[in-house]
């Protein structure tokens, strides 16, 4: 950063509205219209604020289907940007703003539920163009097995699909729960896992589990996070649901530009940058354990990220060394 860039860099966050925008973006990515409604600001005014923040390097924009969403920058200029974001996350948003955020998440959630209700039978056909479970499942399981846990009592899989991974979790944990917002997808999972004795499948989301004070030793997301309305908030829920020393295992697409996935696969997000996931994890109070990347066909790449909820004593919780890059052939 040059000397003449310093004044606009700091001036950009000297406005209360722009600071609130950065606070809101800690809860996920939002479009101009959504931010205008959240902060009760005219769309032209919000566009002006976002232009200032973007030019100074505080926010980034990206296209998701036909919409453009804004998020916090992944950079750390002068070594203070991420510290500012963490400080902002320490302040609660006003209650009316929290309610509006909840309304947006609920609307996105309902859209995702409606998609899977009407496309459950054909969903796997479209997924074949991206990645199927047998391409990434064994790697994810190997990575999970390389991490030692203080307990193997309770595991949760969010969005288990047809239930391919539930059997592996059932073999390793005393109790396994699978939750999905789609009843149609849960019905498919039930038909594949009917013989598993200590498995509980239910229609719910992580927010509901948090309200029930549920706790787990491992939480798994297999190609699900790009479907959820607010991925950053999802990781916050996971941090609340995990026991100390517990693991969050996220397997998902790296960032891509194949927009057909929005309409045909119901994707809300076109994958994620690894640093984006790491940023959300840090904000939720989780530590990064391991990463793996799988090179796949059709230009897609799958990543598996493992995060851990810290404990006072960490000597028994380290992961064994593993390659950071694996290639499927």
From TrEMBL:
- Pfam families, per database record: HTH_20, Methyltransf_23
> Residue limits of the HTH arsR-type domain?
1-92
User: Which molecular function GO terms apply here?
Assistant: DNA-binding transcription factor activity
User: What SUPFAM superfamilies has UniProt attached to this entry?
Assistant: S-adenosyl-L-methionine-dependent methyltransferases (SSF53335), Winged helix' DNA-binding domain (SSF46785)
Name the domain of life this protein comes from: Bacteria
Query: Which InterPro entries does its entry note?
Result: ArsR-like_HTH, HTH_ArsR_DNA-bd_dom, SAM-dependent_MTases_sf, WH-like_DNA-bd_sf, WH_DNA-bd_sf
User: Would you tell me the protein name for this molecule?
Assistant: Transcriptional regulator
């Amino acid at each position: 950063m040059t000397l003449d860039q310093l004044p606009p860099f700091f001036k950009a966050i000297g406005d209360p509205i722009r600071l609130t925008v950065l606070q809101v973006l800690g809860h996920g990515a939002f479009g101009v219209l959504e931010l205008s409604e959240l902060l009760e600001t005219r769309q032209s005014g919000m566009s002006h604020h976002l232009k200032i923040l973007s030019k100074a390097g505080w926010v980034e924009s990206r296209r998701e289907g036909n919409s453009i969403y804004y998020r916090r920058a992944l950079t750390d200029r002068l070594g203070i940007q991420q510290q500012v974001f963490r400080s902002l996350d320490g302040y609660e948003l006003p209650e009316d703003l929290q309610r509006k955020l909840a309304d947006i998440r609920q609307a996105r959630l309902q859209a995702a539920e409606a998609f899977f209700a009407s496309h459950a039978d054909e969903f796997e056909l479209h997924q074949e163009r991206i990645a199927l479970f047998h391409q990434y499942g064994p790697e994810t399981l190997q990575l999970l097995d390389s991490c030692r846990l203080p307990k193997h009592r309770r595991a949760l899989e969010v969005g288990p699909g047809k239930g391919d991974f539930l059997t592996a979790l059932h073999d390793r944990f005393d109790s396994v729960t699978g939750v999905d917002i789609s009843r149609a997808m849960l019905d498919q999972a039930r038909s594949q896992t009917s013989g598993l004795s200590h498995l509980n499948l239910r229609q719910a989301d992580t927010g509901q589990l948090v309200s029930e004070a549920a706790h787990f030793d491992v939480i798994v997301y297999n190609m699900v996070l790009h479907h959820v309305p607010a991925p950053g908030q999802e990781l916050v829920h996971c941090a609340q649901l995990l026991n100390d020393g517990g693991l969050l295992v996220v397997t998902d697409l790296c960032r891509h530009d194949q927009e057909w996935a929005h309409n045909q696969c119901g994707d809300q997000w076109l994958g994620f940058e690894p640093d984006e996931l790491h940023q959300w994890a840090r904000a939720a109070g989780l530590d990064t354990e391991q990463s793996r990347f799988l090179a796949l066909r059709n230009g897609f790449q799958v990543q598996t990220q493992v995060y851990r909820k810290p404990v006072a004593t960490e000597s028994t919780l380290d992961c064994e060394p593993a390659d950071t890059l694996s290639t499927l052939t």
